[in-house]
Amino acid sequence: MTIPLLSEHAISILRRNDHGGYTVPTHGLYPYQWNWDSAFVALGFAEFDRDRAWVELETLVSGQWDDGMIPQIIFHQDDPGYFPGPAVWATGRTPPTSGITQPPVLASIVRHLWQAEGADPAHPRMRALVAACLKSHRWFHTYRDPLANGLVMVTHNWETGRDNSSEWDEALDRVDTSRVGSYQRRDTAHVDAAMRPTAREYDRYVAILQFGRACGWDHREIADHGPFRMIDVGMSMELLRANRDLLVMVQAIGDSATADELKARIALSEHGVDWLWNEDAGAYCSRDLGTGQSSGLVTNASFLAFYAGVGNAAQHARLIAALGRLTHSARFLLPSLEAGSRAYDHQRYWRGPIWLVVSYMVALGLAETGHQAWADRIRSDSAGLIELSGFYESFSPETGAGSGGPDFSWTAAMWLAWCGKVASP
Ligand code: GLC
Asked: Are 13 and 393 in contact, with CB atoms under 8 Å apart?
């Protein structure tokens, strides 16, 4: 297909996945609104329907909890084809939502839309979303910063968006599954089980969910005593970037008190991120709060350091060397895990496959920090994957074949807003 035809196809995917105010990631497998999916999807809509882009984000924040959390999933309507659905989460919210969050990329996307509109500080839609982002970032600060160093603790692996990354394996091993009971997965009815987490892993995901439900989704209790407590390198970098983007908007609005609050938080994270640096790996890695151990694993999320704007020259050199290792045997960039790694599987979800939203953020950061050749390679490989296989959820770094669900919203959005653009940063 030619570039204009692929763009038309991408637009038609977003239109078809549009349920009126929110976009499902893909039909069948994911029939609701997902948090960071919607943020990226708005970037795609902004390329051809700006109003619809803002609406996507407004619908997302309509599910924000009173304590500030923007949930991972909003169940706008019930769908028997998904597990765990609203009755399993039982959060008692209207609209029903899950009880956990997802990567805080919203403020970065709002800044992008606002600047595309001409960056008017009086823009009312931008202001309302800025308020929602601020509330959400404060929630992270209150509930998810146990070391008070500006990093992000996750209490469920689903929060990271990198669901079955091998970074979580050891912490998940310690989760007690003896009381999980029986349940029926639905994901493996939609796509090949070889592309999904295993049954053993899924039991652990459900056990963590059950802990949250049993304590009535008390976020303090979950943060202090939950069965899974990890400092996620991905979300720590994403929140730092989001705070920088939020600061730009808050300054434009002229709210100096909030600007000072954000500056302090940014400084804290810039310093705190050292806690994730793993000298042996030469990269930032997720770290388990239960044991204090670094995962030592270099994944695509490690390179979000460039996107967050952290690291000194020596660390950048080591990161680029690690990027060389992550990609040396890959035909397409950017794999989510190194081919030599124990858990690597080129088609199993976050244990190897390429995810364009992470590739986009990494490429943006690489371009901003002077590594243009790497950024270009990631972008052209991303476009090549779509040209070869279509708009899949993720792709094999070895063959370029699509894995997971087809006609995926955020992949279509990444084509329109980034890799399918003839001239792109
Ligand atoms: C999977 C992905 C997650 C995404 C969701 C919906 O759970 O791991 O990142 O948000 O699907 O697409």
From this structure: no
